[in-house]
Amino acid sequence: MSRADRFAFLISLIGVLLAVFITDHIFERMAHLEDEIAYVWQAQAISRGELKLPSPPDPHSFLVPFVVDYHGERFGKYPLGWPALLAVGIFLGGRHLVNPLLSGLALWLIYRLGKRIFGETVGLLAAGLTLTSPFFLVNSGSLLSHPFGLVLSTSFVLAWLASWETDPRKMIKPTTNSWLSSILAAMALGVLGLTRPLTALALCLPFAVHGLYLFFRGNRQVRIQLLAFCAILIGLGSLHFLWQYAVSGDPWLNPYTLWWPYDKVGFGPGFGRVEGGHTLNQAWVNTRHSLWVGWHDLFGWGAYSWIFLPFGLISVIRYRQGRALLLASVYPILVVVYLAYWIGSSLFGPRYYFEGLYSLTLVSAAGIAYLAGWPTHPAEDWQGKAGWWRARPLLITALLTVLLAGNMLFYTPMRLESMRRLYGVERSRLQPFLTPEAQSLTPALVVVHPDKWTEYGALLELQDPFLDTPFIFVISRGVRADNALKGKFPERTILHYYPDEPYTLYKTSRP
């Protein structure tokens, strides 16, 4: 392991520790978004060997966002990849550590990718920039699928490029390492398809063009290797339809549409909530807002986080780094593909593009190195500068130091603080049910009378899909619906809870 490798490992370790801190102190190890609540529900079910469960009595009272009831059975709408990995964390008692560990791995992979394409200097710069990115940090502490997607996306690109280091016209026979890398690339992309299908589709596009070039310029052995890659990818991708069949009985039924019929990718009537359907104008409005937030969140340099990107592209073009162009294309292609989805993303940054984050950090790092006169490709050595050129690295280092310090001292703390107690979800909401007085009333069914649904949603942290926890919670749907539940759970005490009186549990509804 080189000195640069050891330093990159240290960056990765710091990334894990920062993510654990954010998970603990900002998000309090709790689900805040509807997406996170659904992921946790699915992961809890999978950790006990189930993909779906019988629907509870009066499913609307047992509301779990994005968990659907269909033909008497209950299951989550999200693809299987991330809930399955999160289930491992639940089974091992470390749910809160899954994304921090993945974030540390992502930093290491970004370094390795940068080292392969641009050299150690750019790889280290990119890992460091990623570590300081508010966009990266906010998502690393969440329970969302994006850190896993970033690991899979980076692994795919790294393995794909490792598979085709030799010019296909000169490749007499693929090596064992080339075959192993190709298999790993197919597996990474396939699992990404089982986690975030639209993201995987977008990622396929530039590399499919590269694959066609290899197919037509390479020999028979190259074509066999590419066909094997496609076979593995198709085999893994087909598991998505097998999962849809397992939960709904129809391999072509998208569970997203069972929650919102309009939740589909495309344009026109039936796509999205706007009357008349999703339009190009609405797509542009969503994307413009997502990118505006994204430029601020990327490095925390206000609206100027992009300033080194043009110089990185100049370096790529000057040195004719075709593989770097493939890498650089990932983020913009994600932006273009997600135009077809009816809603944007900004709360956690433009998270639909998160799996292409390395495009921006690596090209920005290449731009920094180019301006400073540092190596920007693996074969380039460090060279001494004469005259005023000696000032270049000092000026760029000083500028970068000011930018990073401004982000870490001001923007990132402010951005993280804005996520604390998101939607009013905080661990203190669970405390009324952890007191000895409340525990003495268990097993209990608690009818929650919230002013907003998150006051109920936060309490789902104390409940699992199997409804065998000391407390189970329902959201009040009126006196008749609430009373009807009493006969369904005769072994449980029926209690009523009002969030404006958190430490009082009523045995009858409040007047």
Care to describe what's here?
The chain is mainly α and 511 residues long. It folds into two domains: 3-30 and 79-403, no CATH class; 427-506. Helix content is 55%, strand content 5%. The strands form two sheets. The chain has a four-stranded mixed beta sheet with strand order 5-4-6-7. The chain has a three-stranded antiparallel beta sheet with strand order 1-3-2. Strand 2 (67-70) and strand 3 form a beta hairpin. Helix 1 (3-25) runs parallel beside helix 5. The longest helix is centred in the middle third of the chain and has 29 residues, at 220-248.
Quick recap:
55% of the residues lie in helices and 5% in strands. It is mainly alpha-helical. The longest helix is centred in the middle third of the chain and has 29 residues.
